[in-house]
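Dear Dr. H.,

I hope your travels went smoothly. While you were away I took the liberty of generating a structure for the chain from your last submission, since the lab meeting agenda had it listed for discussion. I wanted you to have the full record in hand beforehand rather than looking at slides cold. The sequence, exactly as received, is reproduced here:
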Amino acid sequence: MKLYKKYTGGFTMKKQILTMVGLLAPFFAFAEEAKLDTGDTAWMITATAFVVLMTVGGLILFYGGMTRFKNIVNTIMMVLMAYAIAIVVWFLWGYSLAFTDGGSLNAIVGGLSKVLMHGVDYKTLSDVGKFPEWVFATFQSTFAAITIALAAGAVIERMKFSTWLIFVILWITFVYAPIAHVVWGGGFLFDAGALDFAGGTVVHINAGVTGLVLAILVGKRKDFRKTAILPSSVVLTSLGAGLLWFGWFGFNAGSAFGANEVAGVALLTTNLAAAAAVISWVLMEWITAKKPTLLGAASGAIAGLVAITPAAGFVDATGALIIGFVAGIVGWFGVYVLKKALGYDDSLDAFGVHGMAGIWGALATGFFALQPLAWDGSPLQNGDRMGQIIVQIESILFTIVFTAIMTVILFFISSAITRGARVDEETETIGLDEAVHGERGFNL
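The corresponding predicted structure, in token form, is as follows:
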């Protein structure tokens, strides 16, 4: 009673009652059932549609334009079928493996309690926002789909279509779902406070490393570095880059899980980083080759978007500008220096752009993330900048090692089922469009 009087002072009884009610109000509010926010729901549905457009619109054009005319149909089919298969696998079991409790295995993978959305009513609200869990699951399905579709760019023009389809099923199950769980779904990196706002590690490092491993295992195209391999249309590629840039606002701003101020942060940082990377990539071309190219500008935009993805909701404009500008240089290095030095044939530079820029972005997040924007529980919120950087390095290394090992295993399983992963030499010479699909991208 003495302590009570000490802190209430000369309050009247009426004031004391009002004060107690005010103190207890948050507990009563907490006890109330969460209600759907129509604004947040509308934004998340819109953001999901943006990400769909990124894959079945932007990525198809971006990759298709970079491919030789005799393989453009096959390239588009690899992306489109990867998207379709990934969506189905996600709702069959992938979502459950990524975003449920895995019991004794929870540090690495979730469980099977939500297979085919079992037990999730259409009115059930998501744990991360005031919108339906069905919307959250659909939003996340597009991330799984675009990740494996990105990896396709490393092996186009020589990988069997049948092998690719089997690999997609296995990869979503045994690589993407566990990585998503580890970083976002309650796994050990999530608990450690790893920051990945919209998919630097889960999407881009994952896709880049997968592409690199597949490119090495499938082998080089038979005319790689023997004849000029020219894109069918840099105009299509630039249009695809524009659609990817547009869709990326849903990818990043949608990862704020609501129509809120953090979505606004992600909107600004995404746009700024992409623009900065376009400038730096073109400058690198201009300095080294004396010719600034449209393909380089388009690639720079993607590198900037990749690099800002893990940091989008955590950094300010200055951080975004630095991350984007460096990303253009890092991406250019991955495409023109690293690939040449190591000699691998990554057809559309999945690793050079997504892998390299993704690694830079994940690391840069630790350096530039601001405390007020960091998620609850991250080491950065405790003022431990170096601790956050170490956690970011751990997330990068784990993703690289896990993805590389699992991709090798799944490749050989897929290859065994289809009796080899590579098309025969005649098919490669003719082009996969006519030999595999019986179509041409251009009937001119």
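Two observations you may find useful: Residues 336 and 352 are 8 Å apart (CA to CA). The chain has one domain: 38-437.

With kind regards,
E. W.
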